[in-house]
Fold each of these.
Amino acid sequence: MQFTAEMIAGLLNGTIVGDKNAAVSTVSSIDGGKAGSLAYLTNPKYESYLYTTEASIVLVDNNFEPKQEVKATLIKVANVGECVLNLLEMYNATRPRKTGISKLASIHEGAELGEGCFVGDFTVIESTAKIAANVQIYPQCYIGENVTIGEGTKLYPGVKIYEGCVIGKNCILHAGVVIGADGFGFAPKADGTFAKIPQLGNVIIEDDVEVGANTCIDRAKTDHTIVRRGVKLDNLIQIAHNVEIGSDTVMSAQVGVAGTSKVGSNCFVAGQVGIADHVNVGNRVQIASKSGIDKDVPDGEIRFGFPALPGMQYHRSFAVFKNLPDMSSRLRDLEKRMVKLEEK
């Protein structure tokens, strides 16, 4: 579909500077803009691209004034970031939705599929699985026995959901996600070998959760591993057995959460953070990249480093740490001077 500057300005309550008939059919970044694309300027450091972009239309803030000539048509709006999000959602809604059941899929006669589902090639759905309406299951997925999947959820290629797990409504599981593999539980034996501890629980993922590619969420030893409503998990994350992640928490790539730990609601966990087993992280906690959490964290705290320290304590410690070579040299000089004074 094509949209003119006049149509877009009307949707966004914006003001046009340039050709109101300029038309676009896609969205691009400002440095990668091409003819027929809509770009946007949200960060001042990218302003230089505004004067060279090939994009047909660019969204800018109401108070923006260009420093030189701009070829593109500008649309001035109150909040560029919010407007871009709205436009992307509208554009995504116009994309065709897959439907139909592939003849190459293997669906047990005891499985239940709701209306409007899509099931791709070489997908396997086992007996007693219950798939609600409008679920999209891309090729080569596996849905185990007694799995439940809520309405409108989307499974991208290669998702594997083991038996007994529960997936809520309007979730997105990206390619390679594994839900419900055994938790990592082994008991050492006297002869030095290990006995496998049976993992008899399941995984419960509530509504509106998104799980990134190749992320693994292990089933509980008993009871449940739980991912609460609205959680967003990036790629390559490991959630161990009996973990609970609170609602609307966000985790970046390569986070690892060890068994039986709990992370509260509305937390932000940056990339490569490690959370030890049996740790409780409170609500609204922020954890910086590569931090290691081995103790409980109260509500609203910020953590940096390994072992992770409170934010200001970490920065004060780092300020000292980076001066250690100079401090060490000064200390050695003082020691030499003390020796000379003692000799006198």
Amino acid sequence: MGKIKREHFRITGTQYYQDNFVEELGEYNYDYDETASALKEAYYDGDKIYQYDFLNLKAELVPEPDNEYDPNAVAVLANGIKVGHVKKGSCTRVKNLLKSPDFVGIEIEITGGKYKAIYEDDNGKLRVEREQSPYFVDIDILTRDNSVPDPVPSITPEVVPKPLIKEDVQVKKDIKDVLRDRLRLLATAAVFLIVIIIVSLIVS
């Protein structure tokens, strides 16, 4: 299996559906009600604390051939709730990705609405300001990127015999020394026996 490739799309027309999807999908973020001092203790410069979070969303893309404005339109649903449409110029690309044998899935993210912004002022102190932004819906379509080769599988190395350690070498040397000593002893005994035989012959 190749690596996963993402293609990102910003969804349009969210303003026509936001009242419905905020009510149906939004989860109230109780941190939004915290005091400024509490937020400054828990968050950092640049953080945004939105009034609503949108979690655990399952995306679905539905072609709309009967759409009166664009028969090529593709509606975007989150947990079964319509949240907008794929941009007109991206519909064909999105449909091709959905039909691709390499299609893996869709990820969706909804952000926006009222929020409290944490920022650092000119004196280096954290400030909290109330702000508001439009709601944004973004999707990522995931496909397998088969142009990227799979990593080369690891090869189990051959078992290499364990090298002789010093103790093994020493044992072999000791055995050779014992055999050499025994041969010397046998040679000495043989010489001594020959001397006795010769002496016995001379005396007799």
Amino acid sequence: MVLRAHLSVLPAGPLYPGQLNLSFMKVSEILKRACAMDERRFNRGEVRLEELGLIHRKLSANGRRFPERNAADKIIGGYGIDLNPLMAQLQELSQLRTKIETEKRALRQKRNLVSARFQCVIRKLYGIGVELPVHITQLKDRLRNTLRRKSLSFEELEVLETEVCALEESPCPSANETSTFLAVEPNSAVSTEQDTTEIGHLGSQSEPTKSGVDACQTVRHVESELKEKYKEEALAIDGSKVSAFWRQTNTLQCFYPDPPRRANELATILFEFSSYLGLGQQVVVKALSAFGWANLILVLDYLAERVDKLKYPNGYLTTMICCYQKGESVAAGRIRVGALAH
């Protein structure tokens, strides 16, 4: 960032080695070009760049930085940061950048290749109905943790690739051998033919089916109980009642002209609209339990009309809840205790 700030001071256009590539802007002014960096940190950056041989600090006796001009008012020299050492190393630095980008690209390709080959082995084992052995599970965890590291080296990838190659060349165990191994202890003398059949039958029920028609995508034949329960609850809403209160609103009806027909739609709209008003989810849930669905529609519409006057919307809504629980009318008399059955 320090080097970029000094380069931005130089005249626009191509820069050539040997010319007057001098940055003499004051430190207090150039800090703005370095994202308002601290002055001491900026000076340490200049010292570090000089140690690396990228700049030369040419400072005056009192440390000031200024240009020197001739009779024609043309800059012929000065004191500041000389960037000619950087210009002299442009070709070397360009080659170094190309080398680093090439190594990063090769490392990324090697990472993708090792991961793809290992996943191919896993899919092959799942395809024949074989449970993953312990050593493959351990390699899977180690491979995942290693590939996520930023300091991953090419040598580590080669070691992992060697282990993956060994898995690819080793013969795959059959499903019957794996099932027998899982069903019976090593010292057990009981026959395992029936147990193996039961384990295979249970596994076929619990595992999702995969076929070539759907491009190996998971097909689930049974919906989750939570979704079914949620759908049943969504039908237990009085649409006419919600529509009647929806027509009484002003601001809310402008944002959402069509009243919701289901409970999940109503909940989504109310929580979304309350977030626009700056209300937290906890206080909205508390208001819902206190006012009920129908009254909460009028409460939010009332708050929307006064949103420009509310400095703390959460506190205002909390006060309305307390007043309502004490038996007082709220929302400018729109909501009264006992007027609606929750």
